[in-house]
Structures are given as C-alpha cells and as structure tokens.
Specification:
The complex is a heterodimer of chains A (81) and B (230). Chain A contains two helices and three strands. Chain A is an alpha+beta fold and 81 residues long. In chain A, strands 2-1-3 form a three-stranded antiparallel beta sheet, covered by helices on one side. The longest helix of chain A is centred in the C-terminal third of the chain and has 16 residues. With 230 residues, chain B is α/β, with parallel strands linked by helices. Chain B has five helices and eleven strands; from the N terminus they run βαββαβαββββαβββα. In chain B, strands 2-1-3-4-11-10-9-6-7 form a nine-stranded mixed beta sheet, sandwiched between helices. In chain B, strands 5-8 form a two-stranded antiparallel ribbon. In chain B, a hairpin with a 5-residue loop joins strand 10 and strand 11. The longest helix of chain B has 11 residues. Classes of the chains: A alpha+beta (81), B alpha/beta (230). Chains A and B meet through helix 1 of A and loops of B.
C-alpha cells in the first residue's frame, strides 16, 4: 500500500510560513490568494494486506510520531496496489 | 549535587552545560549518551540545547524516542528534577513531560540576542533563589521558540503559576517587541503542574561568567542545587 500523509498547522495556530508565502504571491501579482498554509507531506509504502489495517496503522503512526496534535492537523490517503 | 547532562546526536550545548555546572559552579556533573538507560544516580537531569536528530520532522520529535527518555520519564514521575534548555525544552514538550509546543518564530528568522526576562514564580525548585518580578538577562538563539498551547490549558497554567519566565522589555513590561519569537503570553519558560520539570528557550548555561556577558544563568542552577542541599 502506498500511503500519503498531509500534515498542516492546526486551525487558529499562527502559520508564519503560510503568511510569508501569501504576501510573496501577492507581491508577484497573483490576485485573490488567501488562507495560504505551508504543511508537510509524507509518503510511505506499507506492507499490509488490507486497507483497514493500513488505515489503523497510519493513524497510530500519526498519533505517536508524525503529527503533534497540539499544533498540527492531518489527513491521509491509502492507495492499494 | 549530582547532575546528568544528556547528549543526543546533534546536541550542541552539552559541553557548555557541563562547563557551567562542573567548572564554574563546582557541581558533580557528567554527560550521558542518549542510548544509555541509566541516569547514574543524578538528582537533576539536564536536556541541553542543539539540534537533536537535525530537527528532522519537528524539533525534539525523534529524540523523544531515545532509550534514555524512558528513564527520564520514570525519573520525572518519581519527582526527579528535569531541566530542558532550548532543544531540551522542545524535547520535553514532544515527550508530554511539559504542556504545549514550540513552533517557528513569528518572524521566521533565527533569533540570536540577549533578552530580558521577568521571573513570574519563585516558589519552585528552579527559581527559589530569585524573587518575583525580578528581571534577568539571558541569551536566546533559536528558530523555533514560539510557545503555543491551547487557550484553556494556558489559562490553567497561568492560574497554577506554571509560567516561570516571560519575555519583557528593559523596564519589565510585556510588549510585542520584547517577545521577539511571538510566544503566546510572552512565555519563555514553563514548568509542569508538579513543578519538577522546567523548560526554557533562553540559555542559562551561557550566562555564568561576567566575561561572557552575564551571570544571571547561575541563579537557575544554584536554585536547583540549593534545594537539593536541603
């Protein structure tokens, strides 16, 4: 299974990187850009038979290491095959 | 008094902490490798500054799983004193031995400067030789020092007096300019609710000799040592 984990700063937590990128985009002349956030993208291959097991394992990975719930939110995708 | 300074791969200030404790303050201090599991009878454990594991993933996130951290968690649970400086503070937050988290400075810049701090609670093992409202000068040098915690947790921490140090200006007033990393509530150092674990972004180990810019850092180490001496 190929797993993609998307980590972003938690809603309400100041994201200075997102803010800096947003103003850089505005400076380049891109109009109508708002709510920019910079996060982390983690991909991994997981050797496991079922999608359910994979999802459970990835959730544990996120809770224990990949994500700090105090400051970050996450979502993930599991692709079989 | 016996001190253990933990060295992780990427620790930088372990030797400075050793110098401050052993050579300047004449304490019985030694360095312990993070793969050890034995704290060697230490009465206070110091997690030094640096970039453990290259700050990969999040600052302190990988160091948290070093073998020695299990021993430190047990030691803290039993009431042992733990001091985390800079990266050590980040490791303690990642380990849940301290509340909150440290994120990228509001300015996105690495900050290296001397700051003024106000002592907010002197009834702790780490601040007992200081007085409430006292101003101290310590250096900071970090890119990820913006303290963040959920609003309700912050409220409880304030109520219990867990904020030990706050960034202030030279007159002791809190304002945006004085808190250069944009920490919530201008927090520079916090303790757990049992007051035996303390983490701070400023570096007391770099402020123990007049020649090197100040001696205010001594007060934290001496507070700890005085408490242990009875």
């Amino acid at each position: 299974m190929r797993v993609k984990v998307f980590v972003s700063s938690r809603h309400g937590i100041l994201d200075p990187q997102g803010r800096a990128v947003e103003s850089a985009l505005a400076n380049l002349g891109f109009v109508g850009v708002s709510d920019v956030h910079v996060g982390r993208f983690i991909v991994l291959t997981l050797d496991t038979p079922s999608t359910d097991t994979a999802e459970e394992t990835v959730r544990k990975m996120c809770d224990q290491l990949l994500v700090n719930p105090t400051i970050e939110d996450y979502r993930f995708e599991v692709e079989s095959g | 008094m016996k001190w253990a300074i933990i060295r992780f791969p990427g620790s930088l200030d372990d030797r400075d902490a050793l110098y401050a404790l052993r050579d300047v303050l004449e304490q019985d201090a030694s360095i312990i490798w993070h793969k050890d599991e034995n704290l060697g009878g230490a009465e206070c454990v110091v997690l030094p500054g640096g970039f453990s594991y290259g700050d990969y993933l999040r600052c302190g996130a990988i160091a948290r799983f070093s073998p020695i951290m299990k021993s430190i968690a047990r030691f803290a649970e039993a009431g042992g004193l733990v001091l985390g400086i800079c990266n050590g503070f980040q490791i303690l937050c990642e380990s849940h031995l301290l509340p909150g988290a440290l994120t990228r400075n509001g300015s996105l810049s690495f900050i290296c400067e001397n700051v003024t701090l106000r002592v907010e609670n002197c009834r702790t093992p780490f601040t007992r030789l200081m007085s409430e409202g006292e101003l101290v000068r310590l250096p900071i040098k970090h890119g990820e020092g913006r303290y963040v915690a959920p609003t309700e947790e912050l409220r409880q921490m304030e109520e219990r007096g867990q904020i030990l140090l706050r960034y202030v200006d030279g007159n002791g007033h809190q304002n945006e300019a004085a808190s250069s990393n944009a920490s919530m509530h201008a927090i520079a150092g916090v303790a757990n609710h049992r007051f035996n674990v303390f983490g701070l972004m400023p570096h007391p180990e770099h402020a123990v000799e007049t020649m090197l810019g100040g001696i205010d850092g001594r007060k934290i180490f001496q507070s700890i040592a005085r408490g242990m001496a009875g």
